[in-house]
Amino acid sequence: MALISANRLRHLPVMDGGQLSGLVSIGDLVKATISEQQFIIDQLKRHISGQRD
What is the pTM assigned to this prediction? Predict the structure, then answer.
């Protein structure tokens, strides 16, 4: 995310053995970050409320 923000990029190439295998967009990274944060929030809520899996 820092690389994209610092360089004002919208997409980064994903390379596999010197071959282009895809692109990652800033939207992809934002969605992943939000999803990860929501997972942590849900875990903390369960912990605080005393719920067990």
Answer: 0.67
For residue range 1-53, list pLDDT tens digits in order.
888 888 898 999 999 999 999 999 999 999 999 999 999 999 999 999 988 76
Q: What pLDDT shows up at residue 28?
A: 94
Question: 47-53 long-range contacts, Cβ below 8 Å, gap at least 24?
Answer: none
- The matching CATH number, chosen from 3.90.850.10, 3.10.580.10, 3.40.1190.10, 3.30.160.150, for 2-49 is 3.10.580.10
Report DSSP state, residue 41: H
Amino acid at 32: A
